[in-house]
Design goal:
elongated, 2 domains, 4 helices, YefM-like fold, three-stranded mixed β-sheet, single chain, alpha+beta, 3 strands, 98 residues
Length: 98
């Protein structure tokens, strides 16, 4: 099934909405919806949408980590426990000063 079979005008979606949703829920690829001959939207199964969003979030985390590495905003894992305990003591003493 080529991509061209997954491009449909909005009138098709309106007339065949139940069938379109059934296909998507059965694993069909996303449907590109056109209006006046131009692609305007993509319709996909909700589970696929959530998976895509999760993947994009992970990619964003990776990109942010790469930026942190490039900018030198990282610390070695060695001594992490000591840094956590020091921060906890600092926070505890700040609270007791209040």
């Amino acid at each position: 099934m080529g991509l061209e079979s997954r491009i449909k005008p909005i009138s098709y979606v309106k007339a065949n909405s139940a069938e379109v949703l059934r296909e998507l829920n059965e694993g069909a690829p996303p449907l590109i919806i056109t209006q006046n001959g131009e692609a305007k939207a993509v319709l996909q199964d909700a589970a696929d949408y959530y998976q895509t969003q999760e993947t994009l979030a992970l990619l964003k985390i990776l990109a942010l980590a790469k930026d942190d590495i490039a900018a030198g905003r990282i610390k070695p894992i060695e001594g992490l426990g000591d840094r956590i305990r020091a921060r906890a003591r600092s926070t505890a003493s700040e609270k007791s000063d209040v």
